[in-house]
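User: Predict Cytokine-like protein 1's structure from this.
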Amino acid sequence: MRPWQLPLLLLLLAEPPAVRTAPPTCYSRMLGLSREISRDFQRLQATEPPEPCVTYLPRLYLDIHNYCVLAKLRDFVASPQCWHVAPVDALKEKVRKLYTIMNSFCRRDLVFLSDDCSALEYPIPATTVPPDPQG
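Assistant:
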């Protein structure tokens, strides 16, 4: 092998450079975790046969831009229902994590746009089609 071939061979055998993505921001972490919690809560409610205590858990519709969400998260974690039920314990751990992230690590990155606590009681249906301005 000629001396100039060795670097070329090493270059060809080397792995392609790893794609580096930007690390998640506090905001993206809070948003992603709140969506994950909402999805897990809906799954928990839809489980068949349902765990009897799940019906007594506080509703968990999250909007990280609503100031009342902090109280909602605290209430959910503190609820005595479903102690020692593995899926609920896992969900409560995620809720606790989101509360800690919002209240401690990312406090300065979060902007609350409302403080309407009743808006967190029922989900807002997602619309995929904008309303007709003429109709």
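The chain has one domain: 25-119.
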